[in-house]
Each structure stands twice: as C-alpha cells, then as structure tokens.
Design brief:
It holds the Pfam family Pirin_C_2. This is Quercetin 2,3-dioxygenase C-terminal cupin domain-containing protein. InterPro entries: Quercetinase_C (IPR041602), RmlC_Cupin_sf (IPR011051). The structure is a single chain. With 81 residues, this protein is mostly beta strands. The protein has one domain: Jelly Rolls (Sandwich), CATH 2.60.120. Helix content is 0%, strand content 54%. A 4-stranded antiparallel β-sheet has the order 1-8-3-6, with no helix packed on it. Strands 2-7-4-5 form a 4-stranded antiparallel β-sheet, with no helix packed on it. The protein is elongated. 15% of the residues are buried.
C-alpha cells in the first residue's frame, strides 16, 4: 500500500503496476486529471500490469491518494512445496 502526496507544483506522476501486478488508486483529497477524466476525493481507478497513466494535480491544494496493489491472476507466485 502506498500513501502519496502530489503538490500543485509537482509534475504529473506515473502510475504503472508492472508485469503480473495490478493496482487500485483512490483519491482521498484534491482533484487530478487522469487520462481525459477529472477525478476528485472518493473516486478511484484500476490499472493492470503494463498499463500506465499519469495523474496530474489540477487544483491549488495538494492531492492525497492511496495505491493498493497485488498480484494479478497470472502474476501469483506459487511454491512447489
């Protein structure tokens, strides 16, 4: 789990889970531009594996967000024991 802060003067932030992983991003406060959509507190999105996007703070106050991730079905690590 990641707790992130994006200040108004920060550059857009890359979100990219990576092969075998997926993430849910929840905006806790502020407003962001995600692709061509505007997200506000309480909005979330799901992103999988090699997909990537940028979130950009479009307000005057900081954005606070949480990313919770895990393994996608084909990304599970199994033990042979």
């Amino acid at each position: 789990m990641i707790y992130g802060v994006l200040k108004s003067e920060d550059k857009p932030r890359l979100i990219k889970p990576g092969k075998g992983h997926e993430e849910i991003v929840l905006i806790l406060s502020g407003r962001v531009k995600f692709n061509d959509k505007i997200l506000e507190a309480g909005d979330s999105f799901h992103i999988v594996e090699e997909e990537s996007c940028f979130i950009e703070n479009i307000g005057d106050s900081e954005v606070i967000y949480i990313i919770s991730g895990g393994h996608s079905e084909k990304g599970h690590h199994f033990s042979s024991t």
